[in-house]
Structure formats: C-alpha cells, structure tokens
Give the backbone structure.
Amino acid sequence: MKYNNHTERAGCLALVFRLIVFLFTMQAGTAEGAEKSETISGCPSAELKVTALPPLHVPRIGHAVMCIGDEVVAFGGHTSGFVPTPTAEYYSNGEWHLMQMAYPHDQGAAALTGSGKVVIFGGHEKELGIGQTFTVELYDPVEHTFTGYGCLDKKRCFAKALPMKDGNIIVTGSWYAEDGIECFDGSRQNLFVKAVAQQRSIPYILRTSRNNAIFFSDRDIHADLHDTILIDRLHGEPFTAPLFEEWRPFYNHIGHDNSQCFAGDEKEGKYVNLLQVMQGDSIMAIARVDGEDISLLPTTCPLPMRSTLGRIMWFSYILGNRSIGRAYIVGYGENSNDRRYYVACIDYNKIPSPVTLLYSEPQDTICIYQPVLTRNGDLLIAGGTKPGHVNNFEATRLAFLLHTGTEAEASHAAHTWLWACLLAFVLLASGIVAVLLLKRKKRQQHAGGDAADTVSGRDEELMQQLLRLMEEKKPYLNSNLRVEDVADLLGTNRTYVSNCIKNIRGCQFIQFVNAYRIEHAKQLLRQNRDIKTSYVWTASGFSSEASFFRNFKETTGMTPKEWLNAYQEPS
C-alpha cells in the first residue's frame, strides 16, 4: 500500500476530530456527574457498589483480619455470648474455610513475618473479656495450619504488633495489665526491649526510619484518656507532639493493622504514615506523620461527618492503598433509615489532598468491623456487630465487599475528567506514532534495510551476556535482586534488560529469575532428600516460603515434596 503526505495529514486531522468529539462527550457526562455528586455531602460524592459475601462459619468479634496473598483470614476473637473461639477462617474461591487454632486470641495482635507466616500474640484469658494471656502461635498460609509457638514477655490483650526491616516484630500495648515494649525475633520467648513512658491500649506503632519506630495512644490500659500524650521511641527518649494538644488520635476498640497506616516509600527513605485525629466526636481530620514530625494533612474539603440523611459514624482506622496513593475510612449511617456504607477517599499524594465520599445503596443490614484491603484494592468487612447492637455479646457472621478497587475506578466521579484527558493523550500519541512508523517503514524499504535485524541482534548479544552472568555469578540467589542490579552488572540499563527478556523469553524479569531459583531448589532437593524446606527456599533466593511454594507449583505442577517423590535418580 502506498502512502503520501496528503493521506497522512488527512488521517491525523480525522483522528483529532474524533478526539474532540470524544472529549466533548466526556466533559458533558462529567458535568452531569458533578451535579449528582453534591446530593450526599458538601464534598464530591459517588456511588459505592457493595456485594454481600457468604457468611462466616462462626459469628465473631475481637478477631484479627489480614489479607495474605489472594486470601483474607480472620483469626480468633470471641463469638456470641462473649465466649472466645479457638477457630479461624480464610476466604478463597467464593467461600469461607474453617480452621482450628492452637489458642483463641480474643483481642490479640497479629503481624506478617519475613517468611510469609503470620505470628499471633496474646488475647483475653477467659470469656467476658477477662484477663490476658502469654500465648503466641504461628499460622502457615500455604498449609493453612497453626502451631503453638512460644510466649510473650508480658501477658497482653488489646496489643499491637509491627514488623521492622531487620525481621523483628515489635509488640506493645495491653489491657488491665502492665505495658512495655517487646520483640519477637523468631525464638520461643519474646525479648523485653524497654519500659514505656505511658501505659497504653490499642496503640499506634509507626515506623519512622529503617530501624526505628514511635508508639502512642490517647488511652491508657483502662481506656481512660491521657491528660498529655507521650510518644515513646524504640530508640530514643519520649517526646510530645504539639498537634496532640488540640487533636487526639482516633481510638476504636476494634483495633487495626498498623502497617495499613504507611503511606511512604521505603526505597526512597520516606517514612510517612497517616491516621485520623479528632476534636471531640464531631470533627475528624487526617494527621500526616513524616518521620517524627506530626502535622495535619491539608485537604480540599473537611472530612464529611454528616450526609443529607444524618450523621456518619466512622468506625474504621485508615487503610492505605500505596499503589494508587489513596487512603480509605469506612463508616455507616447512624439513623435507622440510613443503612448505607460510606467510604471517605483521600488522595494523599496531592496537596491539598482531594476528598471524595462514596456511598452505597441502603442495605437490609450491615456489619461493623475493621475492614481489610484486598489485593485488587477492594475493602472486605467480615464479622463484628450490627448497628444498634454495638456490644461484645452479639457477634455477626455477615461479610461484605466494598468495591473501591479497579472496578470502582471507572465510576469514581472525582477522577473521570482526569482519565478522559489521559485516554485522549494516549490516543493522540498512538496516532502520531503510527504515522511516524509508516514514514520510517517507507524509508527502510527505500534503503533496503531491516532495522528489526539490528534490534534482534542486540537482544541476542545481551541475552548471551545475561545467561553467562546467571550461570557464573548466580545473582538470583540474592532475594532482593532487582533488574537495576543486573543492569549494573552488565553495564547497561534496566529497560534494555527488561525488553531483552520479554522479547526473547516472553516473560517478565521476576519470572526469568525465579526459573533459575526453582532449578537451584531442585538441585538442593536432589542432593539431599532429607533437607529442610526452610533451608531450600532461603538458599535458593526466594524472599518467603509462600513465594517459593507458589512458584514451584506453577513451574512443576507439584509441591516440592510431590516432585521429590516423583523424581527418579538416573540409572
């Protein structure tokens, strides 16, 4: 087919005309949405889709909830009548699967270890929320099993735990028992670290640097308000924050996962956390904790405390989705005729930060408990209590999914116009690139050259260098290996390496590296059939046991044990 300048210009003009029509249509649609967005609160609003999930096997409150890979797990707690339950359940493939725990862990703490397992600490000793325990156990998300592991330095409930970069997990906080700071390092007995300047229940634990953290709460171990809020450091002396003289940290008995507060970037050394702060019970704002500097986060509008139907009861702690720079707070309508879920969305990477209120259709019934952020960005609430029954004696089995993730982005009113502009830019750029490629092809045909051969030759040469590097230096044994590291070793850049692997092997960098790790693991298994799996995945360069098992099964179709049983030594 022949092309000339006139044809190319005509094609570009037609593309531009279509883009103008597209943008005009999108702008008109956005204007209609903006008019609708003011019907619920003083800030931009949009509808929230809610899906009722299958109910839990056991009604529960006081449980810890975590998202581990594609599964959401509810650990322990107590059931109706305030009776501790030594059970857990995980949500997978559209249903809940019941598991037996070693201990109940009613109002216990939980944290993810570096190996991919979950360690669970403490809880009430008896029914009715009486006493505290020393109990510690480990959950294996691959095998879905629990193991009683050891004991705390101090008996605790209403404590919190946070993993540190060195692999240790810091534990602090308690309820009607002496508080202190202790450390789980994988041994059977937690290690005492230091005394606290202020006794606390359900504290915040926020990392302020690679190996330091701060601890604070506005309540003591009896839930009484502190006159002055002291902030403990893991390393260093206590201090006070001027902001806490006017605002108090949000406190709720349902507890939270401290890691959800993180809104920074460890690779860039930015340790930023977010939390709600209150003035009385009618004004809420967002505090930004940058290292140890605590200040209010400027927002485009105040956090809404009322809808047109009445007061909004915010019950969750902040959940941060770092992949899109957005934080969520979940609430419900206080009035009995307003059984809606509300979600405040804060785009915290922008200053001032835009706030959008999402609201659901009225629900027949809802449950109130700390949500968890799923892998695709939705919020899942499982168990807790119902409005009008907010107490520890009437637990619920209800579970709901609030669609704030990828499905919700298309209907997010505050970003519709931004996405339209971005799409228009991509379409325009694609048209320009297409024209340029046509011109380039004509020049190549005229010159009799074939640029594809040159690119292919460069990729082949780089691939040979990459293969020699992997065989001789074995950089894949480093669990923190990045494409930048390989590029530096080859004297090139990350883009060339990534494109080379994709063009020749048809996979991503991590898949390429994991293939070497799997082969190394097979070699270790063949050499010693009695070798421990924990040594195999660590020595092969995997960052966690869960990652090792998942990749091994995806590659071989079998677990390591099954593969070893099927493997026959060559005769």
About this structure: The first helix runs from residue 5 to 37. The chain is about 25% helix and 25% strand.
